[in-house]
Amino acid sequence: MHVLILGGTTEARRLAELLTDEAGLRVTSSLAGRVAAPRLPPGEVRVGGFGGAEGMAAWLREHRVDALIDATHPFAGTISFNAASAAALAHVPLLALRRPGWVAGEGDDWHPVDSLEQAARVLPALGERVFLTTGRMGLAAFTGDPELDGLWFLVRSVDAPEPPFPARMEVLLDRGPFSLEGERELLRRHRVDVVVTKDSGGAATSPKLVAAREAGVPVVVVRRPAVPASAAVASPQEAVAWVRLQGPR
Ligand code: NAP
Question: How would CATH label the architecture of 2-100+226-245?
Answer without folding.
Answer: 3-Layer(aba) Sandwich (3.40)
